[in-house]
Amino acid sequence: xxxxHQKIDELVKQNKILVFMKGNKLMPQCGFSNNVVQILNTLxxxxxxxxxLADPEIRQGIKEYSQWPTIPQIYINGExxxxxxxxxxxxxxxxxxxxxxxxxxx
Length: 106
Known about the structure:
Blueprint: H1 3-14, E1 17-21, H2 31-43, E2 48-51, H3 56-66, E3 73-76, E4 79-82, H4 84-93, H5 95-105
Parallel strand pairs: 1-2
Antiparallel strand pairs: 1-3, 3-4
Helix pairs in contact: 1-3, 2-4
């Protein structure tokens, strides 16, 4: 297991809601990352972000870790949920709210 993989694994396990994104929650660096931040802010839940632009090893490693080619990537309770499009879809269906409530209650 690479050091990037181990680091990602630890971050995912330590944070109930985690977003690997370009930029951070205060200053997203791309529209897709911004969409995810806006949704999570709307839900009013605590979450953490990892700026992949600050760490090229993580930026590449996260794509291998999740088997998902794009960023942002959302993890809830250690489980990979998806990216911006999936987050929007789940949010519109009301499913994202349920997922974060369950995660935060556990």
